[in-house]
Task: inverse folding
């Protein structure tokens, strides 16, 4: 109870409670996240179960009764009669899962590389950072597309649809580790000169133990900020790849896949098939970005 009180009264939580942008962004992210997690309970239909679909409901406008079945859908239906509201909830599950998993993979690789490079120095640091510099010369989305294409080429044809999500996670994660590595390496260079690290070295602690138990906790603040912003970028990257047709398979459509499908009907009058998934993606990415900006300012003592 005392710890909860101290946490609630901390500088970060005070900043959060007094920031309308942070509060609003958190509410939007929480609503969308809960909607994705509880999609099977919230969604009126299972949009990916053919047994529940009725082609007669196709192209029903939002809030208007269907001319043949009389059914009404709050956000309308697509060409296959799928409820757009339900497809958005299920599509967010894929987008958020890929985003969180890709950021976790990028963090794991980047933090490990940054710690080793900063603590070991020498040729180890040179090799790791030169690899990072080379990767930075290419746009992240192109790196992700290259990795996705190579990984998909090694995947057996019969398993490509099943493994597409995992291949997508690996592609985005491997394209996103550099910024974590650079930040952690810089912070490690500062931390390893401090007395507590030198004391740990004097008493015979191993380099692995020093990096894991002493340096890592003290370099996590900037990593959390980067992770929050990277989550929004990973979601956008997944949507971009899926929009281009090299991401989530049609059997497991994400928000990007739904936008790609809706784009084909935009100029024929069925605007809602594109509009609502695009607005959801925009709200999700913008809210996560705004949370990342607030977290960066809250954890920066120079801005207090």
Result:
């Amino acid at each position: 109870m005392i710890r909860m009180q101290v946490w609630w009264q901390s500088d970060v939580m005070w900043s959060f409670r007094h920031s309308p942008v942070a509060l609003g962004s958190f509410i939007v992210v929480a609503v969308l996240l809960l909607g994705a997690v509880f999609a099977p309970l919230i969604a009126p239909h299972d949009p990916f179960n053919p047994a529940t679909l009725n082609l007669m409901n196709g192209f029903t406008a939002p809030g208007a009764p269907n001319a043949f079945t009389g059914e009404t859908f709050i956000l309308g239906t697509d060409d296959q009669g799928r409820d757009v509201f339900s497809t958005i909830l299920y599509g967010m599950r894929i987008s958020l899962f890929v985003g969180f998993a890709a950021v976790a993979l990028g963090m794991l690789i980047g933090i490990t590389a940054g710690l080793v490079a900063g603590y070991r120095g020498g040729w180890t640091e040179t090799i790791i950072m030169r690899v990072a510099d080379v990767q930075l010369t290419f746009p992240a989305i192109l790196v992700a597309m290259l990795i996705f294409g190579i990984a998909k080429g090694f995947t057996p044809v019969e398993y490509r649809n099943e493994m597409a999500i995992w291949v997508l996670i690996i592609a985005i994660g491997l394209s996103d580790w550099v910024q974590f590595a650079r930040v952690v390496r810089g912070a490690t260079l500062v931390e390893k000169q401090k007395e507590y690290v030198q004391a740990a070295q004097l008493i015979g602690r191993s380099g692995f133990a020093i990096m894991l138990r002493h340096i890592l906790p003290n370099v996590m603040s900037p990593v959390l900020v980067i992770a929050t912003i990277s989550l929004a970028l990973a979601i956008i990257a997944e949507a971009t790849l899926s929009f281009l047709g090299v991401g989530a398979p049609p059997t497991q459509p994400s928000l990007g896949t739904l936008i790609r499908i809706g784009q084909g009907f935009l100029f024929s009058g069925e605007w809602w098939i594109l509009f609502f998934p695009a607005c959801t993606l925009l709200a999700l990415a913008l809210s996560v970005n705004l949370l990342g900006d607030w977290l960066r300012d809250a954890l920066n003592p120079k801005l207090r």
In short: The domain at 2-44+74-303 is CATH 1.10.3720.10 (MetI-like fold). The two ends are 27 Å apart (CA to CA). The chain has one domain: 2-44+74-303. The chain is about 70% helix and 0% strand.
